[in-house]
Design a protein that fits this description.
alpha/beta, 13% strand
């Protein structure tokens, strides 16, 4: 049987993904797979997304196609199972047990497609005392110890948007797990469930810090360590115009260059003398306040002092380095981050703008060879309708 075409470009071209619509880390994970070439079909619910963002500007839905399915309608679960039967991966972000109650849980999907990788994205995970509780990024990272590391020692911990929990500890770990399970499925013919919990991923991100803590090289308090702003040559400083500069002059030769350009050569001995750090911080703070951000940017330009201006979201795309690399791109009139990482043989790209709910219904039905309403049948079948590809040895 010839496999139905799956539009795309990039290293994941030909991989089919079903995304059960949600908010936050699930859509971002599916976007990353779509950016890398996977054919992602987002199953939207009637009534639109939970956050109420204009679908035409929801960039996490770029490179996808959308169909609308009411999972509470009599034929809703069967329609999703028809997709799952033809897919390599399914992603859902419901609370534990919800997918099972809707009839689209791992058991239902694997009965139709035993090769399927079933990715589950939650904050607390599928098991544990808090598994059934509501939550958001900030609560998940709070319990892992990572939120408590961020910010000044005399202020409450600073919320790092939802980048640390939802996307770093959540989406990226889900994608790593899905791709590992997909490799296993192609090698063995056996699918499995990937339980990606934000608490697990965010805790895992702090592995190096736990090693430093065990070695006595990290204090278990905020703003007292080499990489958390406690060190005066690793942090941020205000400039004369209210801007900020970021300093990361950790190694001795970078520190020496930093002092030279700042005009504080007399502070060379403070690099390893923590008793002098308060004085060094005061001197660096006062010095940065003598010039504007742009003036300091020019001063450090071309050096290895490891100093950079702190840019806003709107400024970042115009930085010469990021512009030269094409780190940001314009598509459909919206400036946005370009797909990452980059591949020498199978480059990824932005093929389409955000998928509008239901707009891909006819194309998906054709490309995935879905049954019509009269053909839809939820009864299990012994094998999926497209051949599984095995990894080469």
């Amino acid at each position: 049987m010839t496999e139905a075409k799956t539009p795309g470009q990039g290293p994941l071209t030909g991989v089919r993904v079903v995304e059960l619509a949600g908010i936050g880390p699930g859509p971002f994970a599916a976007m990353l797979l779509a950016d890398l070439g996977a054919d992602v079909v987002r199953v939207d619910r009637p009534g639109g997304p939970g956050l109420g963002i204009d679908p035409a500007r929801d960039l996490t839905n770029r490179n996808k196609r959308s169909v609308i399915v009411d999972l509470k309608a009599p034929d809703g679960p069967a329609r999703v199972l028809d997709l799952a039967e033809r897919a390599d991966v399914l992603i859902e972000g419901y609370r534990p047990g919800v997918a099972e109650r809707l009839g689209v849980g791992p058991g239902d999907c694997h009965a139709r497609n035993p090769h399927l990788v079933y990715g589950r994205m939650t904050g607390w995970g599928q098991q544990g005392p808090l598994a059934d509780r509501a939550g958001h990024d900030i609560a998940y990272i709070a319990l892992t110890g990572t939120l408590g590391m961020i910010g000044a020692p005399d202020t409450p911990p600073a919320a790092p948007a939802n980048l640390l929990g939802d996307y770093a500890g959540g989406s990226l770990y889900l994608v790593v797990g899905v791709l590992a399970a997909l490799h296993h499925a192609r090698a063995t013919g056996t699918g499995q469930v990937v339980d990606a919990a934000i608490v697990d991923g965010t805790a895992h991100l702090s592995t190096m810090i736990h090693g430093m803590l065990a070695a006595g090289a990290w204090q278990d308090r905020r703003g007292a360590n080499l990489l958390d702003g406690g060190c005066p040559y690793y942090g941020t400083y205000e400039t004369a115009d209210g801007g900020h500069m970021a300093v990361g002059a950790l190694e001795p030769r970078f520190y020496t260059e930093f002092l030279r350009l700042l005009g504080l050569d007399d502070q060379a001995g403070a690099h390893t003398d923590v008793t002098r750090w308060p004085e060094l911080r005061a001197r660096v703070t006062a010095r940065f306040r003598t010039r504007t951000r742009d003036e300091w940017t020019d001063r450090f330009d071309g050096s290895d002092a490891c100093v950079a201006p702190v840019l806003s979201l709107r400024e970042a795309p115009h930085h010469p380095h990021l512009a030269a690399r094409g780190t940001f791109t314009d598509h459909g009139g919206i400036t946005q981050p370009a797909p990452a990482p980059r591949f020498s043989a199978t480059p990824a790209g932005i093929r389409t703008g955000p998928a509008l709910p239901g707009a891909g219904t006819d194309d998906v039905a054709r490309d995935w060879d879905l049954p019509g309403p009269a053909e839809t049948a939820p009864a299990p079948t012994s094998k999926p309708s497209h051949p599984q590809r095995k990894a080469s040895s």
